[in-house]
Amino acid sequence: MEEKDLDRLRHQMPELDVITPLLFGGNKSVVFGDKKFSGSTQGVNPDYAQVSAPQMFYGRYINEMDVRQQRKVCVIGKQIYKNLFPSGGDPCGKSVRVDSTYYMVIGVDYRSGNGINFGGRADETITLPQSVLRSAYNRGKAVDIIATTGKPGVVMSSIAQRMRETVARAHSIDPTDEKGIMVFNTEVLFQMLDNLFKGVNFLIWLVGIGTLLAGAIGVSNIMMVTVKERTTEI
């Protein structure tokens, strides 16, 4: 995919709110002093924060000026921070080396890596302005992932096929080929998780009812035995 695909979606899919590119630079060694950590690199625009919801422990996220001026700045994940700065403290303003290029740390994203991840775990990722990553790794106008969110009230599963068709036709790909243009809808995943939790809650409810019934039967039996014993005594 390419940057033009973002414009196509903006013009043809008014239901979408955020439409932002995501680029990957691969796994790289991130170095600070004598400390080293292997993490994945990604390039983003500021509005990617509305999709990924970073949890900034220190500093800030990538902003528009970083992208426009191609500033050599980065946001590091939690595990990178813990390994490069084991004594803790605010790392913002310090420079780390990725390959042969130095980037100033402007923030620490403290998300865990257990959620939905693209291109690597969130806590092991170093995030750069997408314009900087393009230049550093000769990515040209390429886009690896187009991340989107729907406007309020929009059901993403109802427009997923139209999104695929919009991009596929521009690249002479069969719009019905789900492997040609892959659409990953987190809404479906969340629905599955919601159904799973509903099933677990229902199971807990059944176990609770069964426990109460077993307790009631047990108490009833004890009372019957006690009554019989007292009847004999009388």
From TrEMBL:
Sorted alphabetically, the keyword list is: Membrane, Transmembrane, Transmembrane helix
**UniProt keyword Magnesium, yes or no:** no
Q: Which InterPro entries match?
A: MacB_PCD (IPR025857), Macrolide_Exporter_MacB (IPR050250)
TM spans (from-to): 202-227
The record's GO molecular-function terms, alphabetically, read: transmembrane transporter activity
Which residue range or ranges hold the MacB-like periplasmic core domain? 3-165
This protein's GO CC annotations: plasma membrane
The name on file for this protein is ABC transporter, permease protein
Native organism: human gut metagenome
